[in-house]
Each structure stands twice: as C-alpha cells, then as structure tokens.
Design brief:
alpha/beta, TIM Barrel, 8-stranded parallel sheet, binds dihydroflavine-adenine dinucleotide
Length: about 300
Amino acid sequence: MGLSRSTKVRDVVEKAPISRDVVNRFVAGTTTSDAVRTARELDGTGRLVTIDFLGEDTLDRAQAIATRDAYLDLLADLADAGLSDGGRVEVSLKLSALGQALPRDGRKISLDYARSVCEAAAIADTTVTLDMEDHTTTDATLETLAALRKDFPQTGAVLQAYLRRTEADCRDLAYAGSRVRLCKGAYAEPSSVAFADKGEVDMNYVKCLRVLMEGEGYPMVASHDPRIIQIAGSLADKNLRAPESFEFQMLYGIRPKEQQRLADAGHRMRVYVPFGDEWYGYLMRRMAERPANTAFFVRALTSRS
Ligand code: FDA
C-alpha cells in the first residue's frame, strides 16, 4: 500500500522498460484513443468489451467531475467509432471515483454523476455496469443501482461471491432484465462478512451462479477459473438458456486464448479493459489489497492459456 503512494518508486517503476510490458499486458493505455483502439481490436475478434477509466477513489469534487467527463468523452468517441451500438462496448464505473465517499453528500453526488454517464451510454446505445468495491460500500452501491435502474433498467450490478450476503443479493437481483456480474471479489475483507477460504468462496460462487442461472435476469460470469466456466456452461444448459441470455467476462490480458475460444464457440465473451494514467496505483493496490492478486497477475504473465 505504501508503494502505491510513493512518487519516487512510482517514477522508477513507470520508467523501467519491463514495467511498460507488464502494464501494456493489463491496461489498454493512458488515453481515450488507446481505449477505443483496444476496443476496436477486441471487437474485430468477436469479443465484447467493457471499459474502465482508472480514476482514483476520490475525496475531491474536481477529480470526481474529471472522471465523469472522461466517461462522457469516452462514450461519445465509442459512438463515433460505431463500437457502442447494441452494447458491444459498454463501460464499467467505480462510484468511489465519482465521489461516493465525499463528506456530507457524496452518495448524492456520485449518483448524479453516474446518472450523467448512464444518459450518455443510453444515447450511445450501450450500458453501464457499477463495479463493486469493499464491503463497507455494498449497501450504498446497491441503493445507487436501484435508483439508476428506475430510469436506466439496463444498468448492471456486480456481486462478489466471497461475501456471505451475496447469495441473498443474487435472489433479490435475479429478475427479468437485471444484468448481474458475479465475480469472486478482490478486496481484503474480514471473516465476519466474507469467506476466507478459497474453497468456500468457490462453493459460494457456484451457489450464487445457480441462483442467477435459474432466475430471469442476465448473468455475467466474471471468472478465469476453468471449473467455474465449465459449471456455468452446464447450468446454462440445464436451465435451457440461449447463448444470448448470459455472458462470460474476463480481464484484459488474462487468459486471452480462452477468451477467444469461448467467443469462437458462440458464447458472448466480454473483456474488461482498464485505461488511464492511474494504472500504477491500480496495479499496486490490486496486488497489495489481496496477496493472491500478485500471484494472479504473475501467473497471467507466464501462462500460455
Ligand atoms: P481465481 O483467481 O480464483 O483463479 C482460479 C483459477 O483460474 C486458477 O486456479 C486457474 O486455474 C485459473 N486462472 C486464473 N488466472 C489464470 C491465468 N492467468 N492463466 C491461466 N489460468 C488462470 N472484483 C471486485 O471485487 N469487484 C469488481 O467489480 C470486479 N470486477 C471484475 C470484472 C471482471 C470482468 C472480472 C473478470 C473480474 C472482476 N473482479 C472484480 C475481480 C474478481 O473479483 C477476481 O479477483 C478475479 O477475477 C480473480 O478471480 P477468478 O474467478 O478469475 O479466479
């Protein structure tokens, strides 16, 4: 965590030739045109895309406005490039980057800014998915989701299988038209709210996925785990789901061959593509927050699958 804030270390890491390679593997670049170019490349291979602008958790209103504006510019550029229609390329949003934690009216501010992004997405004929952050923000994020869905019912949610509450949240959100991305969860959480054991997290993922697949919503299976992918396919078959009634999702740079295999097999396969200047903090924090994340990125650098 200390390293993620050190400007000296940041300077060294940003300039080291190896860092560029590592970063390019997981982050599309720093500018909107980098993000659009990467989206175009992935679109050309039959993969769907969701783009995340790497804004920081902010307690500064000006920074929250800059993040909102970055999304508005991105959505306009995606529409101009003909990439957003039908939701082929959509965006993912962290409410903390839109000021959710600002003192006093942070929740209202982040809701207002998220609404502007949803409006721009609707004009571009695409959707927004709200990323899920640490457990102290889950209720606030789900409340914001409910408010946004009144006007933009296609707004997507993210639920984290490591949280004990998530099976119940899946039941609440498994209704027609409800897009729910199910991931394992990436933050360090106390055992009072989250399963600590990897096996328990995996088991809970399957329980939650069963609820989503049996329900009437649109499940988004966000995992690189081969067993989860196989189980998702079986659950979809068992529930007579058509290929367009759910999708797989993976992070940019992780298991690209598997991504392509799923897309070629006729599945909807969406790649989560981060971009922006804040890649250093993003990668360092992802690793610091949860030691397993370091192994996860290192594995991606050495894996051929
Ligand atoms: P996990 O890390 O448990 O790995 C399981 C297995 O997958 C491994 O044992 C291995 O077999 C295989 N595997 C993994 N990486 C591999 C590699 N590089 N090569 C070969 N095999 C590999 N989190 C969060 O808290 N909030 C959020 O909003 C999101 N959003 C999000 C969106 C999308 C699209 C994705 C894919 C993920 C997220 N996440 C997230 C992150 C998520 O919670 C989780 O931390 C990571 O996806 C890692 O968990 P996995 O399910 O992929 O498998």
